[in-house]
Automatic annotation (TrEMBL):
TM stretches of this protein: 24-47, 118-136, 170-197
Keywords, comma-separated and alphabetical: Membrane, Transmembrane, Transmembrane helix
Originating organism: Odontella aurita
The UniProt record lists the keyword Membrane: yes
Entry protein name: Uncharacterized protein
Length: 238
């Protein structure tokens, strides 16, 4: 969040306040986006980070930041976020999108009820995820025996569609879904506790509550990236 806040202040001063000028585009495309995308490689190398979840976490933030720099350059950042430096830092600082009041264009404060709901939502997710990893770990997260190595890419077509292989993939997908849900709830809870600002839900039970592929991708699975892609690319093309 600190890194996001610092980046937000720079983007606000150099791009948002100079939106549409050649300098804003040069700063965004020529300096900020390359620097942000290169940052994880530098951190991983400097700190010798070998843990894969930590590496993935480092790479998730720059992608979102790059999208938000793009929306700042092309003017698609929410009007409420652009109202002031404070609002823009609030909008930018977390991986979870802050909620703004459409009338006042100010961040919506999280109530004690919101906090309780977040905690009650987070704790079961932590328990479920811990249980799933504990159960799947002894079998290398692939409990079903298959004719080919479950973690190999060298499969025949028949092996790919075998019942055991499909079940192993389902388990892996469920673990990923629960991990993303757990992580997003944890970040939302932390952001609310530190800032007192309400955030929007990023993952909404995509595997088991989706009614269609569009519902899965557009409304339930990683809505932050969906929204960033929509405003950064689709709106620009339109």
């Amino acid at each position: 969040m600190i890194m996001g806040g610092v980046t937000a202040a720079v983007v606000y001063e150099l791009i948002v306040k100079r939106q549409g000028t050649p300098g804003a585009y040069l700063t965004g495309f020529g300096v900020l986006i390359p620097a942000v995308l290169a940052c994880p490689f530098f951190i991983i190398s400097a700190l010798d980070i070998r843990c894969m979840p930590h590496r993935l976490a480092l790479f998730s933030f720059p992608g979102t930041v790059a999208f938000r720099i793009s929306e700042a350059m092309f003017g698609f950042a929410p009007p409420a976020a652009k109202k002031s430096m404070k609002n823009y830092v609030t909008y930018y600082a977390s991986l979870m999108e802050a909620t703004f009041d459409p009338k006042t264009e100010e961040p919506v404060r999280a109530t004690s009820t919101d906090m309780i709901h977040l905690i009650l939502d987070f704790l079961p997710s932590a328990l479920i995820l811990t249980m799933l990893f504990s159960l799947a770990s002894p079998w290398g997260y692939a409990p079903n025996v298959t004719s080919a190595d479950a973690h190999s890419m060298d499969h025949t077509l028949g092996e790919i569609f075998s019942a055991g292989h499909l079940m192993n993939n389902f388990i892996a997908a469920a673990l990923l879904s629960f991990s993303l849900s757990f992580g997003s709830k944890g970040v939302s809870l932390l952001f609310c506790l530190l800032t007192g600002v309400r955030t929007q839900r990023m993952v909404d039970n995509p595997m088991f509550a989706s009614t269609s592929p569009s519902d899965f991708w557009g409304r339930r699975w990683n809505t932050l990236i969906h929204g960033a892609l929509k405003v950064s690319f689709v709106s620009n093309v339109g």
